[in-house]
UniProtKB/TrEMBL annotation:
The lineage of its organism: Bacteria, Pseudomonadati, Bacteroidota, Bacteroidia, Bacteroidales. It is a multi-pass membrane protein. Belongs to the vitamin uptake transporter (VUT/ECF) (TC 2.A.88) family. Q precursor transporter subfamily. It holds the Pfam family Vut_1. The keyword Nuclease does not apply. This is Probable queuosine precursor transporter. The keyword Hydrolase does not apply. Keywords: Cell membrane, Membrane, Transmembrane, Transmembrane helix, Transport. It is found in: Cell membrane. The chain crosses the membrane at residues 38-58, 70-92, 112-135, 147-171, 183-203. One of its GO terms (molecular function) is transmembrane transporter activity. Involved in the import of queuosine (Q) precursors, required for Q precursor salvage. GO terms for cellular component: plasma membrane. InterPro entries: YhhQ (IPR003744).
Length: 232
């Protein structure tokens, strides 16, 4: 396997990290999705707009370059997310100029509570690694066939794990339990639907990168240990 990365890999890595940072900021807003009969409201976080893109990129990287490259990108995304959270906390703690009127709004968006930050980082790691693992193992078992099915199933597994971890940790005791369960189910299903709708684009991107990079990795005999970051 190539020890150096290509321009395609670098670009996907940059986009992956950008989507993760943006989704963390957008998670601070809860959006009304649909009002059901009887007044019940289905809600999602605004991070739904961009977070599924990170899973699509994860699928592309695992499909083309394999689990080891996906592992590198996942940890890089974690590090960038953690860095932004730390810098945001420092910015919130700095004293505001007396004439500036935007402190309350700034602190609401960037002053991510430690509980929410921890929930976001943990859920991201577990969901992303499950997504990459399922994608990798299914590719070997199917001998590279059925990319669409592999992409959808791996996303469903990863997104479900992400939602199951994030919402109870971040909002347990704040949002009613029945509302939390609805948000978990709706988010996981909508993110998977997102993957299905954009699948034709994903397939074309994967085929293009495989042709340009002349790479199509099968993870035979590799270690799935999430800590072996240096193994590329």
């Amino acid at each position: 396997m190539k020890s150096k990365v290509s321009v395609s890999f670098m670009m996907l890595g940059v986009l992956f990290c950008t989507c993760l940072v943006a989704s963390n900021l957008l998670e601070t807003k809860v959006v009304r999705l649909w009002q059901m009969p009887g007044g019940h409201i289905l809600s999602v976080t605004a991070g739904l707009l961009v977070f599924p893109i990170s899973y699509i990129i994860n699928d592309c990287i695992a499909e083309v370059w394999g689990y080891r490259k996906a592992r590198l990108i996942i940890w890089l995304g974690f590090a960038m997310n953690f860095l932004v959270i730390i810098l945001s906390r420092v910015a919130v703690m700095l004293p505001a100029a007396p004439f500036w009127e935007g402190e309350e709004a700034f602190n609401f968006v960037f002053g991510l509570a430690p509980r929410i930050a921890a929930a976001s980082l943990l859920a991201f790691l577990v969901g992303s690694f499950l997504n990459a693992y399922v994608m990798s193992r299914m590719k070997i078992r199917s001998a590279g066939r059925n990319f669409s099915a592999r992409a959808i199933l791996s996303t469903l597994v990863g997104e479900s794990a992400d939602s199951l971890l994030f919402f109870p940790i971040a909002f347990g005791g704040i949002i009613p339990a029945d509302e939390l369960l609805k948000m978990i189910a709706v988010q996981a299903l909508l993110k998977t639907l997102y993957e299905i709708l954009i699948l034709p684009v994903t397939i074309r991107v994967v085929h293009y990168i495989k042709r340009v990079d002349e790479t199509d990795t099968y993870d035979e005999g590799i270690s799935y240990n999430v800590w072996k970051i240096k193994e590329l």
